[in-house]
Amino acid sequence: MRALITGASSGMGRDMARVLSKMGYDLILVARRKNRLLELKQELDGNVTIIPMDLSIEENCFKLYEKVKSKQIDVVINNAGFGLFGEFVKTDLDTELKMIDLNVRAYHILTKLFLQDFVRRDSGYILNVCSSAGFMAGPRLSTYYATKNYVTKLTMAINEELRVAKSHVTICALCPGPVATEFNRVAHGTFAIREASSYEVAEYAIDKLFQRKMIIVPTIMMKLTLFFNRFAPHRLALFIAYKIQMRKSK
């Protein structure tokens, strides 16, 4: 059994590698920071391959697929991504475009390429790490929320296509709330509510992936938040989101 994990050098990607390693999976770990990948490799059991690569560069997504497509990959976890706090008129455009390249284009490309292989052999699992933000709009974190909406809804649509086709391939969207990772440091903000344990979220996500659950939402708080968000008028939901993001910004 072999799993490919992007964004594996920290946070949930690193912890998912730990979880799958304990389950006996060989791993292909992808991230920009080679030193972090080497550190992680040393603590894991089994056959671990590291591929230092920046997936915000479109060409690298295709290079990654070509590099590993001949291997028998059973699980693909698209986890690489980042956010950026601030008002849309003030945030840096180049950073936002890089975010779209990584949070959307890389997910889209890798999902498409590996899904085609999985469908041909009628087996395989894809986990797209999305966010509870994938069901909302996020003033002062607008581009990040928009990218997560894209991937969440894309994953749901593909899941239904596979279900109707009676395929044995599974694709799921992991939609957590705040998780204790490097997100805040990179995005230049702080969460206003308690962050979930990265490792606990990783364990939960892997468990629900193999149960073939389409939308994976860790913690009761986030389940309740998303449930009640369905009934809130758009303007009220936006006002609440804006106030929450104001408390996050440094």
Classify the secondary structure makeup into a structural class.
alpha/beta
Largest β sheet strand count, sense and barrel closure: 7 strands, parallel
Name the CATH superfamily assignment.
NAD(P)-binding Rossmann-like Domain
Number of strands: 7
Oligomer: single chain
Task: Please give the radius of gyration in angstroms.
Answer: 17 Å
As residue ranges, the low-confidence spans are 185-189
CATH topology: Rossmann fold
Tell me the distance between the termini: 43 Å
Can you list the strand order of the major beta sheet? 3-2-1-4-5-6-7
Average residue-wise pLDDT: 89
Strand content: 5-15%
Number of helices: 9
Number of domains: 1
Task: Quickly give the CATH architecture.
Answer: 3-Layer(aba) Sandwich
| CATH class group | Alpha Beta
What does this protein structure show overall?
- This protein has 250 residues and is an alpha/beta fold.
- The protein has a single domain (2-248), classed as Rossmann fold.
- Helices cover 51% and strands 13% of the residues.
- It has helices spanning 11-22, 34-43, 58-68, 93-121, 142-164, 183-187, 198-210, 220-229, 234-248; strands spanning 2-6, 26-31, 48-52, 75-78, 125-129, 170-174, 215-216.
- Strands 3-2-1-4-5-6-7 form a seven-stranded parallel sheet, sandwiched between helices.
- The longest helix is centred in the middle third of the chain and has 29 residues, at 93-121.
- Residues 185-189 have low confidence and may be disordered.
